[in-house]
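Practice problem: Alpha-carbonic anhydrase domain-containing protein
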Amino acid sequence: MYPRPRAIVYQNIQKEMEASVQVIVFFFPGPAFWGLINPEWSLCNRGRRQSPVNLEPDKLLFDPNLRSLHIDKHRVSGYIANTGHSVIFTVDNSTRNHINVTGGPLSYRYQFQEMHMHYGLHDDSGSEHSVNDYAFPAEHTASDTERYITGEENSAVGL
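Answer key — structure tokens:
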């Protein structure tokens, strides 16, 4: 039997808006339930290379030809919100300098737009992924490639 989802209501207050907007987020306890939330996410239940991923360092290969990862060191302004299961920082679109991520195994330049830090009710349940079956209290950052034009296309291939 699946646990019942809990609805979490929070206010997302944006500088451009005169009034606050209420958003309802349905919280399911982890990635194992994503395929149940939306039929379009059904691969989350069936796929072999879907989140969550257990990283096993002793099975990783070292690539001596891999370039260094470069992250721009610009200060950016933005908005922060707490949804009750994650803290979200969104870069203000009018920010002057952007933080780009390049190099390493990346073929494209990725622009930092938003960071999600998922956390759980307990220290062993916040991260989606694990290392040697060890879960962490919190995890996750997200960036989008400049290769695509719309945010919807970016989200499908985000880092």
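Discussion: Confidence is low (pLDDT under 50) at residues 1-26, 154-159. Students who identified this feature from the tokens alone can consider the problem solved.
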